[in-house]
Amino acid sequence: MRRAWWPLGPASVAVPAGAIVVVVLVMTWPMLGWPYPLWVQTSAQFHQQFTWAGLIAATSACWYASVLHAKDRIWMRPHAPRLGAPAAGRHLATLVCWFVGAYLVVLLPLVMSTVDGIGAPDPLVMLSGVLAMIAATAFGYALGTVVPSAVMVPVVAVGFYALLVAGSAGGLATVAPVLSLEPELGQRESLPLLVFRIALFVVLAVAAGGLAAKAMARTQPWRSLVDVAIYLALPAALVVASLIRQPVVFVADAHPAMSCTEQRAIRYCVHSENRPRLTELVRTVDPVIARFGTKPANIDQVWDQSLTFQSEHAPGVELAWLEPDGAIESEVATTAAGVYACAFARPDSRETERLTMVATDVDEYLRTGTPAGTLSAMSVPEVRQWLARHQDQLHACTLPEDQLPR
């Protein structure tokens, strides 16, 4: 038992570690080329990538333990000298070094690509993900030691998958390592949540290690359930406490700092950490305003969505999503065209359908600069003149039939 691999070969840990590298690399590969990476999202990947990596680590550790402690091993005989904490410690050290080490190595390229990114890293968030991997490995090993049978491997896999499904649904957000939503610029994971998670994963890892050592040292199989109840009582109590009063998952500043500029009577504002993208935002939205021909009556400002997590934006403020991959998305054209006006102004009718069709064609024109559909018989200057005369009616869904484009 002094050899780390005996009676298992190196492939017993190298293959699962390789699988962890592959699945995490596949999931994070698109993020490596982002021009505007966010540290808040990169930090979150340390627990978000637990989805498959944690499942592989737990089930592989369970299989490792079930093979190592099978009943036909000589040290498992009723009168054989019993193994204990030193052996369990060596086994867990081997598993953690391979599985968690692989996890950290494959996340390193993502960290390096975010060095000059927006914001700052969050060490506690990263630590919570690493501890979750350690806890998963220790828990899987403990279950494989308590019940040294291959039957436990699919049981552990199903159990971890169920935990991840429950976490994604929001019911176990404080317990499941993977959050249903990733934080964005302007948000951060709350300190109470992080403190609880770190405490839970540490307690679970220690309890699982103690349970494994106890199971290896016992001679009476009937005591397995008693040992499980004793060692997992504290982690279970923490889980129940978190379900009774769940900590807030995300927090955000009520009044985040912003950078603003104005063009064509439209005020553009972004989160202060998105300041380098302010010019890009104007360059993306301004052509829509130029095609409209004048300032739309229902749009006064365009705000970075990161400014609105703790406050409602005022009427006349349109939101823009500045994505880390460089894309900028907004509904400025749709709002200026009044596409949704009739949906709120009056019930469906043939006239409403006609107005909605015109508004949709205006939306398409504002995005592309080419009149089409109901506007196809009009030139660009004619469309601009028509919008200048009828935009208030278009936005209120009160445009009469005889004023529609022909």
Distance linking N and C termini: 88 Å
**Kindly state the mean pLDDT as a whole number?**
87
DSSP strand count: 7
Q: Total number of helical segments? A: 14
Ranges where pLDDT stays below 50 over 5 or more residues in a row are: none
Please report which band the strand proportion falls in: under 5%, 5-15%, 15-25%, 25-35%, 35-45% or over 45%: 5-15%
In terms of structural class, how would the helical and strand content be classed?
alpha/beta
Counting structural domains, the number is 3
Query: How large, in whole angstroms, is the Cα Rg?
Result: 29 Å
Strand order of the largest sheet: 3-4-5-6-7
How much helicity do the residues have? 55-70%
**Largest beta sheet, briefly?**
5 strands, mixed
> Globular, elongated, flat, extended or rod-shaped: what is the shape?
elongated
The arrangement of helices and strands along the chain is: HHHHHHEHHHEEEHEEEHHHH
How does this model look, in words?
The protein is α/β, with parallel strands linked by helices. It folds into 3 domains: 11-251, no CATH class; 258-336; 338-403, no CATH class. It is 56% helix and 7% strand. The protein contains 14 helices and 7 strands. The strands form 2 sheets. The chain has a 5-stranded mixed β-sheet. A two-stranded antiparallel ribbon has the order 1-2. α1 (11-28) packs parallel to α4, α2 packs parallel to α5 and α3 (50-68) packs parallel to α5. The mean pLDDT is 87.
